[in-house]
Write a structure and sequence with these properties.
12 helices, nine-stranded mixed β-sheet, alpha/beta, two-stranded antiparallel ribbon, 32% helix, globular, 390 residues
Length: 390
């Protein structure tokens, strides 16, 4: 249970147009997602008194809130990479529970793909060379290279195979095939993954997330607002956040992600166990992120992630633990900091609104518990949110 006096629910979720969006600005995608989330909830924007945003403009929550016509009395601009939105959701839930806000809107939008096509920026993803990074930048470490190094360590230490990592991409694509909003839906095989162009050993192209445009919005509200909403509430049961290191030299174990801490905190605060969860939405900029996060959240033991992801366990259709049910960043969409998309998909699953990709419990009932876990930087940060329905 979130600390404080009031329960907190997600009452509205939405995506903007996603995939290939060449005729909209990032601000417009923020606005589109926000309007759709408010319409989903059935609440007027005048009820929103909290706002969270990151990644756009010089003063993200100020500029975006102004663009949306909001004048919030509670704001958050936490920016910790891909985990940003799970961490923001945790902060928002705590603020609502404590009475510092009543309805908090989280919004994100990016034209990452369109910007490159239009020549507004290059494809290079760099974090700069100041601070602790100055000791790594001269050696040419890219973001993907850092994840690739971590994957190699797991393979060396536990015998994880490249075919097992490829299975994650294959199953993500199979889930995306059930999602009409996914950017890539054609099936792929393990051989397809292994034969692709090398990006950073051992990752070929399909081990890496796609680049898309798109936005998302999530509206959280106090329990007394629920009766005014048109949607069934999805309750925030527990959250956790953790940051672990800034540079690779300070990372104690390449096979352990910060989700090991954020997940433990979130499950403990929710009062549930990993084996009670019906599905998981996991940040998947690279296949190894999915594998190690599954281990660190407790869905399998450390070192057993390779065996766990085999035999279709992650599939919506017949999988023991459906993971990234919309196709994830590997196949559905990835416009940058994708963590907010995880929350949108988790809520849709718990409401029973996922269409062909809807997860069902063994008894045919809708799922009762889901988890969204975001990872930021190069396994530097993690935010985990446990969600449930009544």
């Amino acid at each position: 249970m979130v600390a404080g006096g009031r329960r907190v629910a997600v009452v509205g979720v939405a995506l903007s147009d996603c995939g290939r969006v060449d005729d909209a600005t990032a601000y417009a995608l923020h606005a589109q997602a926000a309007r759709r989330a408010l319409a989903d909830a059935g609440l007027d924007r005048s009820r929103v008194d909290g706002f969270a945003s990151a990644g756009l403009g010089t003063l993200a929550p100020v500029e975006v809130a102004d663009y949306l016509g909001l004048r919030p009395t509670w704001v958050d601009s936490t920016s910790v990479g891909g985990a940003t939105w799970e961490v923001m959701a945790a902060h928002a839930a705590d603020a609502i529970a404590a009475g510092h806000a009543n309805a908090v809107l989280l919004v994100y939008g990016s034209t990452a793909r369109a910007d490159i096509r239009a020549g507004r920026r290059t494809g290079t993803f760099a974090f700069g060379g100041g601070g602790p990074l100055q000791f790594e930048v001269p050696y040419g470490h890219t973001l993907v290279a850092k994840y690739a190094m971590a994957a190699r360590r797991h393979m060396l230490q536990f015998g994880t195979t490249i075919e097992q990592l490829a299975q994650i991409a294959v199953q993500a694509r199979a889930n995306a095939a059930l999602n009409p909003e996914a950017m890539f839906r054609d099936p792929v095989t393990v051989d397809d993954v292994l034969s692709g162009p090398m990006i950073a050993d051992p990752f070929t192209k399909l081990h890496c997330c796609l680049r898309s445009d798109g936005g998302a919005a999530v509206l959280l509200a106090a329990e007394e607002y629920v009766r005014d909403c048109r949607t069934a509430p999805v309750w925030v049961l527990g959250t956790g956040e953790h940051v672990s290191h800034a540079s690779l030299s300070e990372w104690e174990d390449f096979t352990v992600s910060p989700a090991a801490v954020s997940g433990r905190l979130a499950f403990a605060r929710a009062g549930v166990r990993a084996d009670e969860v019906d599905f998981a939405e996991i940040y998947d900029a690279f296949t190894y992120m999915t594998l190690v996060t599954l281990e660190d959240l407790g869905f399998c033991a450390k070192g057993e992630g390779g065996a766990f992801v085999e035999k279709g366990r992650l599939l919506v259709a017949g999988g023991e633990l459906p993971v990234n049910t919309d196709g994830g960043g590997l196949s559905a969409q990835h416009p940058g900091m994708r963590g907010l998309f995880l929350l949108v998909e988790a809520v849709r699953q718990l409401r029973g609104e996922a269409g062909e990709r809807q997860v069902r419990r063994p008894d045919g009932e809708l799922p009762r518990l889901g988890v969204a876990s975001g990872t930021g930087g190069w396994f530097c940060s993690s935010g985990t949110v446990v969600l449930g329905r009544e």
